[in-house]
Amino acid sequence: MALRPAISKVAAHGTLTEVEAHQAMGHIMDGEATPAQIASFITALAMRGETVEEITGFARAMRERAVTIAPRADHLVDIVGTGGDRLNTFNVSTTSAFVIAGAGGHVAKHGNRAASSRCGSADVLEALGINLQAPPEVVQACIEEVGFGFMFAPLFHPAFK
């Protein structure tokens, strides 16, 4: 389903099937939608609320377009923050990743710069000297060797420009 019909359907309070949601998100992530179309789609969804089928379709489209790694590690934990919880808390997800890795676990930490808070995980890690631009094979090696690797969103999710 192209984005324009998806916008119309959602704006009329209809729901998308998982396949329709997957296709709509694919159009967005592949650069086939205008900023105005994306804003209309997101606004209509926010006003109606998302269904499980829609979220599943969106997630599948996003995962298909992500850069992936496959660390050889037992019990790998994947942590990502909220992107700003509006509660003025500190960066809990990054701190949690350090605690897990320090206890012997293996963590793939996803994140980005602050968008709605004062300090995103990328900001914290950059201040600590972590190379945010590390390629996937380096991030994978870090997870395997030291238990922690950072997956900078613009590199691992290039469709989110």
Describe the protein's architecture and organization.
With 161 residues, the protein is mostly helical. The protein folds into 2 domains: 3-64, Transferase, Pyrimidine Nucleoside Phosphorylase, Chain A, domain 3, CATH 1.20.970.10; 76-156, no CATH class. Helices cover 50% and strands 10% of the residues. The chain contains 8 helices and 3 strands. The chain has helices at 3-11, 18-29, 35-48, 52-64, 92-102, 121-127, 136-146, 153-156, and strands at 76-80, 106-111, 148-152. The chain has a 3-stranded parallel β-sheet with strand order 1-2-3. Helix 5 links the parallel strand 1 (76-80) and strand 2. Helix 1 packs parallel to helix 3 and helix 2 packs across helix 4. The protein is elongated, with a radius of gyration of 18 Å. The mean pLDDT is 92.
Write down the overall geometry: elongated
The end-to-end distance, rounded to whole angstroms, is 22 Å
Taking strands numbered 1, 2, ... along the chain, how are they ordered across the largest sheet?
1-2-3
Please estimate the helix content. Answer: 40-55%
Count of distinct structural domains: 2
Q: Report the count of strand segments.
A: 3
Helices and strands: which structural class? mainly alpha
Task: Kindly estimate the percentage of residues that lie in beta strands according to DSSP.
Answer: 5-15%
How would a crystallographer describe the biggest sheet? 3 strands, parallel
User: What is the ordering of alpha helices and beta strands?
Assistant: HHHHEHEHHEH
Radius of gyration: 18 Å
Count of helix runs? 8
Sequence stretches where pLDDT stays below 50 over 5 or more residues:
none
